[in-house]
Each structure stands twice: as structure tokens, then as C-alpha cells.
Design brief:
alpha+beta, Thrombin, subunit H, 2 domains, six-stranded antiparallel beta barrel, six-stranded antiparallel β-barrel
Amino acid sequence: MRIGTTKKRLILFLIIVAVLAIFNIFSDQIKSFVYDKSMNLQSSLWQAGRNQKTDEKVRVLTEENQKLLSQLAELENLKKENQFLRESLSLGLEKEFNLILAKTTAKNTFTLKGITFEDSILINKGKNDGVRKDFPVILSNKVLVGKVSEVYDSFSRVTLVSNKESLIDIQIQDAEPFALAKGEGNSKVSLDLFPKDKELKDNSLVYTSTLGGIYPSGLVIGKIQNIQKIDNEPYTKADIALSFDLSQLDQVFVVKVAQIIND
């Protein structure tokens, strides 16, 4: 037993001596190896930390940039609203009508509750804002856009004067008889039921009459163009060029009409 233990101790001693000898002989190489591995590890950790800090800075800067862009958009909207209101005030529009300022949120063709509508717009004001069905919708220069056709709590659909469902009693500048403005769709309106024996001039102004019981008198629709008198037809045909550009339709006024409110 003692001989075996002695041999084990002797072998262990020789191994230790050998390791120390190798370390002394190759100490520089070993140190260099350990140092290289350590530096690579430290560099990787430092680079990872640096990338993490950089990513965090980028994220913070991106968020701040998005907030600034959002604030700029809000300021631009306020600028447009203020300009729109200034124009209406300069014309005394608020003295003539009871108005609700609204913003257009969808134009021309869109789908609402599974139904596709054409020649319509959506506005961001509804029942909660005092909007009611059949209220006229105008611009600050008294140009008629259309009328409210559907009302929800916080938004409404407006049928444009060019909608195929639109039929408006009108008067024409320098012309005696009343007639109708008929929506044809695709932003087009035509003259209807104007007697052929009455004089009609190109570029004559077309505006609303009170005969229909919905629109106040004097709201501008457009101008007469492309007059046609056809044989065997009792009425003169013509186009009515609209006085607003749908692509530029951002802010509108809803006119609170008293007789409709009281219905």
C-alpha cells in the first residue's frame, strides 16, 4: 500500500515539475495566446455594448423625429384651418349661416360598411357635433359641395352635387326661368329642364334656388358650358362646370339649416 501511494505521489510530482518546466520554457507564447484570446473577447464585448448604445440612440432619435413630423403635420392642418376660417370671416359667412367646420377624410370613391360610394366624401363631424341629414355642405366662398346624406356619431357621408342621386333646383345668371342641376357622376353635372326658347349664355353663373326646400338661395354650383339646342327637344342641354376641385377639397363647412333641425 505504501509503495503504491509513494509511486502516485512521485508521478504527480513529476507532472507538476513538467508543467512548470513547459510554462517556463513557453511562458511568452502562452501569455501571448491568453492575451490575444482575452483581447478578442474584450473587443467583442465592447463592440456589442457600443452597438447596443448606438441602436438605442438611433431608436430615441427616430422616435423624436416621428414626434416632430407629427407636430409639423398638426401645425400644417391648423394653418389650413385658420386660413379657411379667415377666408370665411372676411366674407362674413358666419353672419349669414350657422356653420360647422369639418375636415374631409375620404374622397370620391370609397367603401363604407361594405357599400362602395362614388361622388361622395366623408367628413370628420357627425351627430355628436350637431350634423344632421340633408344639411348643405359648402366652401368658404359659398360654393356648394353637396349635402349630408348619412350621419354617424363622429363622421358623416356627403353626397356631392355631381352624384347621380343629386338633383338641385337652380337659378342661372341673366336667365329668367328656373331649372335643375343634375348629377351625372364622375364629377360631372348637366343642366336639365331649361326651356329651349329662353336665352342661355356660356359661362353664366349657376347657383341654388330655395325651391327645393333644402339649399339656401345663392350658393354657387358652377358655370354653363357646351350649350346644345337639339331639334325636336323641348329643353336646352348644357354642362355645368363645377366651381370646386375635388382633389383640393380638404376643409368644408356644414350649414345648419333651421327648418331641417326643427323637423
